[in-house]
Amino acid sequence: MPVVTVPVAMRWSDMDAYGHVNNTDFMRYTEQARIEALALVKSGPDTGTLVVRHEVEYRVPLEYHRDGVLVDIWVTRIGGAGFDLAYEVATTHAGERVVHAVSASTMVMYSFSRATPRRIEPAERELLESLSGPPVQFRRPSR
Hints:
Elements: E1 4-8, H1 23-37, E2 47-58, E3 69-78, E4 82-93, E5 96-111, E6 116-117, H2 122-129
Antiparallel strand pairs: 1-3, 2-5, 3-4, 4-5, 5-6
GO molecular function, one term: hydrolase activity
Keywords: Hydrolase
Organism: Aquipuribacter nitratireducens
């Protein structure tokens, strides 16, 4: 499966009063990975991608790590104007990978000057297809 792995730095302040990373920081980690992984999926200065839906499932509590986290990101669906992304937020301990959260986002290509979604262009589709993989397997299915 084609995956982009993006290392994301952590901050000491990402931890909450319980000593583990706050749920909102997981969204920051996936956002950073998404920005880096999709930097080439943009046709011009007027266009971009917007998140229209996001789902996350926490698996193992995450504490601060100097090495940060690794966020794997891949594409699970491509439509006319939108696409879905999957993520795994993980760390490595003694050579063993620990997945702390899985997540999925629905994205839409957007024209800022027209303030409307726009179709995915052929070059963008080709790049997205090169990152295509299976959907996230959440433990509890979406409603």
